[in-house]
Amino acid sequence: MTTTTTTATIALANLSDAAVAALQAALVTRGPRKGRLLSAAPPSQSMAYAAWQGAMLSCNPYKASIAALMFMSPEQRAIQKEVTALFDALPKGARIAMDKDRQALEALGAW
User: How far apart are CA 45 and CA 27, in angstroms?
Assistant: First the structure.
């Protein structure tokens, strides 16, 4: 897990401050799922929404919304692209672990 953590730390350092704040708002902050993506999208006008959509494009594309991507503001689109690039750079196992539904589907062999 050290390699994944190191990769994530290096990739996170390349994000803008706005993208880091948005991504932090799109993560669970307490409980057993702390540090993983929220199971439902944050409010649509927030930057966290853009970060969540960007992360889901890599982790579980079935949860990403095409309409959300079409109607994002330019600022949200920039955040979404940064976060998607970050998650695309992570190893597959790390991306799977970020979403509980994707993890369950992988365990069932349905993915």
Answer: 17
